[in-house]
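Let's practice the habit of predicting before peeking. Look at the sequence and jot down your guess about where helices and strands might fall. Then scroll down.
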Amino acid sequence: MSNLPYEPEFEQAYKELASTLENSTLFQKKPEYRKALQVVSVPERVVQFRVVWEDDNQQVQINRGYRVQFNSALGPYKGGLRFHPSVNLSILKFLGFEQIFKNALTGLNMGGGKGGSDFDPKGKSDNEIRRFCVSFMTELCKHIGADTDVPAGDIGVTGREVGFMFGQYKKIRNAWEGVLTGKGGTWGGSLIRPEATGYGVVYYVEHMIKYATEGKESFAGKRVAISGSGNVAQYAALKVIELGGSVVSLSDSQGALVLQGEEGSFTPEEINTIAAIKVERKQISELATTEAFSSKFKYIPGARPWTNITGRIDVALPSATQNEVSGDEAKALIAAGCKFIAEGSNMGSTQDAIDVFEAHRDANKSEAIWYAPGKAANAGGVAVSGLEMAQNSARVNWSREEVDTRLKNIMEDCFNNGLATAKEYATPAEGALPSLVAGSNIAGFTKVAEAMKDHGDWW
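Done guessing? Here is the structure:
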């Protein structure tokens, strides 16, 4: 690959998967899968385009737009659109690559893709965002469709942006179809979709706790550290509280808000207050100095929560962005007594952190920290996107209870599939917990590889 540009995020995601497969017995039992790994690591198609739009001062602005259509072996390309200044091809290839195997683990018929733009919605008016979305979709609509590629929202893309893009797609293509997920509830969206990733990661950890403690423990009484303050973090926090746990931190790109002392928790009302300022694209720091928050929480500028929490941590849920837990922070979590870590974000842990977690799991048997990768733990969001696609195709709307039940079942299957696969191909040491990162990687990869082989993509 020396002739290719340096793509650090994508290379990290590829090496994480490849090393897992190499360190298992998969290639010993099925050596032909090495060729499948080579094929699946190259996108089927990469679309790159310019996005020209006009700001409120009638000045022309230019951004880059992308869509990485990575793999369609299991169904239409499926994955979010991210609007953020950091967006580049490496990040989108990493996200699309992860999306292939995440979607496979849901059991739904979805391929993997990702897209977005280096456009920054922060500080923009609604009209500027609308004009950008119209220009972006004018080009993207040539490459997507309900049976081809179905994007969703991601960082910087909320229901507002999805609505603007859907409207432009409909005008140009003269078709109302389920081409985007995360739509409004009155025009094709699914109930539970905003909550799905946050709820899903908590449902996944429920099964981790149940398995590791042989059913003796649950979220009740657990102290849970969460990073981020967007949809994933908000709804994960609310579900943890509903299940009897205590939430001791939230954060954003500017700093961390951490509970003072070893007692107490964020309340649903406090989480809703944070959610409200995030809708206005404001920072947590604006709340931190108010009397209601400063008496209970400590705000730490420029920090992540993992090394700044007083007292023990039972569960950690990184739910902000990629590489938000370093090797040193992984050691700090272990020192704080953390027993379960599951990624609400994509590739939330660096490779150094994963190595720390996996080494501790191997060495400390049932008392170890147990790590769940994002491709398994945060699959709830895309799972409900898949359920939204199904509802659109059938022109029906399922109740909140039905969608939530299906989400719970998908997350349980996701956990059990990774667990069983780890036991088969990455047999743990006696008394040690199985590797969920190995099991999830192998389960997702083998499902996609078999479909590609049936299609003649490798042989």
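How did you do? The CA atoms of residues 141 and 338 lie 46 Å apart.
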